[in-house]
Design goal:
This protein has helices spanning 22-50, 61-90, 99-124, 126-137, 141-146, 151-160, 172-189, 195-208, 212-267, 272-282, and strands at residues 3-8, 11-16. By secondary structure, it is mainly alpha-helical. It has 2 domains: 3-138 and 236-282, no CATH class; 141-230. It has a two-stranded antiparallel ribbon with strand order 1-2. Strand 1 (3-8) and strand 2 (11-16) form a beta hairpin. Helix 4 (126-137) crosses helix 9, helix 6 runs antiparallel to helix 9 and helix 8 (195-208) crosses helix 9. The longest helix is centred in the last third of the chain and has 56 residues, at 212-267.
C-alpha cells in the first residue's frame, strides 16, 4: 500500500495516498477529445476530396466505407494514445509499491482517460461524428421520414413521371401523399402491400395515364429499387457501427499501452524494466 508522510503537531503521521489522479485523467481526456475533433475535421475534408458529384470520377461506396473505417481506427489510436500517455506521464508518482502495481495503476489511468474522453466525446462530438458516419450510411428510413428532401421523394417522382403531361407543378399534394405512404410502409413492414399497394397503383395510373398493367409494373420496379437502396443503407450503417466499435476497442488498448509507456518515462524505467526481466529469466 502506498503511503505518504505528513508532519503534524504530534509528529509524522503516515496516511494512504490516493490511488487515482483525476487531474491526470481529465488532462489526458481533454487532449484526446481535442485531437479527435481535429482529426474529424481532417477526415471530413479528406472525404470531400475523394467524393465527387460526378459518379464516374468518385470513389466507390465500398472503398469509401472501408477507408472511413480504417480512418476511425487510426484516429482512435492517435487520440487515445495521446490521452493515455499524458494520463500516465502526469499521474502522481508512486513510492513503496511493487513494479507490477505501478504498471497496473498507470494502465488503469490510461483506460480511465479513454473512458472519460469517450463519454465526453459522445456528447460534445456527436454532431461532427454523425455527419462523417452519415456520409457512409445516409439514406436510412428514419432520416427519410424527417427530412423534407428525403430520398423517398425521389421514388414518388419516379412513380408520377410522365412525358405527355404538363401539370407537373400541380402534383405536390399527390407527391406528398405517396412519400408519406412509402415512408410509413417501408419503415413499418419493409414493403408496400395489400390495400396500400393497390391504392398506389390506382394513383399512378390516374396521374400518369398508364394502363393498369403498366402502372403495376412501374410500382413494382420502383418498390424493388427502394427496398434495395434501403437495404444497402442498412448494411452501410451496420458496417459503420462495426468499424466504430472496433475503433473503440483499439482506442482503449492504445490508451492503456501509452499510459504504461508514459508511466515508465515518468519513473525513468521505460525500457529498463523489460531488460531486467529478460536478464532475470536468462539468469
Amino acid at each position: 500500500m502506498e503511503e505518504i508522510v505528513e508532519t503534524v503537531s504530534n509528529g509524522p503521521v503516515r496516511v494512504e495516498a490516493p490511488g487515482v489522479s483525476w487531474g491526470a485523467i481529465l488532462a489526458g481526456a481533454a487532449a484526446a477529445c481535442a485531437l479527435t475533433l481535429l482529426l474529424l475535421s481532417l477526415g471530413a475534408g479528406l472525404g470531400f476530396a475523394v467524393v465527387s458529384p460526378w459518379g464516374s470520377r468518385s470513389t466507390s461506396s465500398t472503398s469509401f466505407e472501408i477507408g472511413t473505417g480504417l480512418y476511425f481506427i487510426v484516429m482512435a489510436m492517435l487520440s487515445s494514445g495521446l490521452g493515455g500517455y499524458l494520463a500516465g506521464r502526469l499521474r502522481r508518482k508512486s513510492f513503496g509499491l511493487e513494479t507490477i502495481e505501478v504498471e497496473f495503476r498507470d494502465t488503469a489511468h490510461g483506460f480511465l482517460a479513454w473512458a472519460v474522453a469517450s463519454i465526453v466525446g459522445a456528447v460534445l462530438l456527436a454532431s461532427p461524428a454523425s455527419t462523417l458516419i452519415g456520409d457512409v450510411a445516409g439514406g436510412a428510413v428514419q432520416a427519410a421520414s424527417t427530412s423534407q428532401a428525403s430520398p423517398v421523394n425521389n421514388y414518388a417522382d419516379m412513380l408520377l413521371r410522365s412525358d405527355s403531361r404538363s401539370d407537373q407543378q400541380s402534383l405536390a399534394d399527390t407527391r406528398g401523399e405517396i412519400s408519406r405512404l412509402l415512408t410509413t410502409s417501408l419503415r413499418t413492414n419493409n414493403d408496400v402491400a395489400g390495400a396500400d399497394r393497390d391504392y398506389l397503383v390506382k394513383i399512378v395510373a390516374a396521374r400518369t395515364g398508364l394502363s393498369q398493367p403498366d402502372a403495376e409494373k412501374r410500382v413494382n420496379d420502383v418498390l424493388t429499387q427502394a427496398k434495395a437502396d434501403l437495404d444497402k443503407a442498412r448494411k452501410a450503417a451496420m458496417h459503420a457501427a462495426i468499424w466504430l466499435t472496433l475503433s473503440l476497442f483499439i482506442g482503449a488498448f492504445a490508451a492503456a499501452a501509452a499510459a504504461w509507456e508514459g508511466g515508465g518515462v515518468r519513473d525513468g524505467t521505460w525500457g529498463k524494466t523489460n531488460l531486467r526481466r529478460t536478464a532475470a529469466r536468462t539468469g
